[in-house]
Amino acid sequence: MESANEKYGYILVRFGELSTKGKNKKDFIRQLTRNVKYALSAYPQLEYRNDRDRLYIFLNDTDPVPVSQRLKDVFGIRSFSLAIKCEPEMEAIKQAALYAAQKEWNEGKRTFKVMARRNDKSFPFVSDQINRFVAGRVLHETELKVDVHNPDFPLIVEIHKDAAYIMAHTELGAGGYPVRVGGRAMMLLSGGIDSPVAAYEIMKRGVMIECVHFASQPYTSEQAKEKVLTLAKMLSRYQGPVRVHVVPFTDLQLAIYDHCPENYAITIMRRMMVRIAEELAKKNKCLALVTGESVGQVASQTLESMGVINEVIKLPVIRPVATWDKLEIIAKAREIGTYETSILPFEDCCTIFTPKDPVTKPRSDRAEQYESRFDWKELLDKAVENTETVTMSEE
Ligand code: ATP
Ligand code: MG
To answer: Quick one: 122 and 222 in the same domain?
Structure first.
């Protein structure tokens, strides 16, 4: 049996938004546990256990710092704390709390507040009593003072049926839902700043992504493609391996420029992109498309444009950053580490074929009319057929 003075040997993980109950809750916890294990697979010595509202990680002498760092990227975690585990019995709890309090004192903390939570209702004392007993012991044995309004640290006590946990720090998790509980979506990943952020946001809602990238070689370089694959690799940090479907888009694009007026080229090109993306989505059991579009940012992102582009497909299109300012998107891109890669100067298919004066208010009848001028269906099928799929992961 462990002694009450056992050092911090556990991490206690609190779940995120659990608005759903019953079977969904079970799925949430099962998936979260799986995702945590995957994220921490570099530490095979860790041991896991979960109950209905907590996941416990036994560190087995592992350095908690890198483990905590990695946990911060797992969606579905509200917060987590390094914890001392002890017997669910008052004397053991007091001793462990005293150990934790002394450690905080050594680090310069001077005031505390006990916050007890009794999960096991058969424990013979209520929270208020536990608070008083624990605080009494700490006040008696140390020079720490109680400050209920603004303590230097909380002394958190959680009592479960089989064990109690003592903690003095809480770190925020990434929030959201565990990736995979929300099904799968096809992410349109360009090499820009916006789409990786949109990808992050949709994964945060528990949706697993596959990516589609439209490449226009030889007009775009091998490096432009590598950059997109690098971004996909970075995104794999949040969900595990990310599949990227690279679509050879050049022939279709050249045909568009041959047959359609220049100012409609972008509109038609986007319609082709979403048609292809929808086809790949269906083939790969994805339930929606996701883009990094932001309302009003460029000609193809006015509401009129979005309408004319959207009308050629049936799947829902999610636009996580639709209402974000560019500066907000950039701030997020920096935070998740994709910004530096996104701004590498390799040309994108859209930057090369950008017309001087794209329509900001395209009309569907016109778009249809221009499309009827050439056999795009054949070119589209060929592009899908020649799509190359690469799987990207961190190591
Ligand atoms: P980003 O920073 O994501 O490139 P952007 O502001 O450059 O965004 P656009 O180039 O107009 O915007 O593209 C809007 C969205 O269309 C992108 O966020 C992405 O989802 C999709 N998209 C654009 N180009 C491509 C491409 N070559 N391959 C895949 N998706 C693309
Ligand atoms: Mg772009």
So the answer is: no
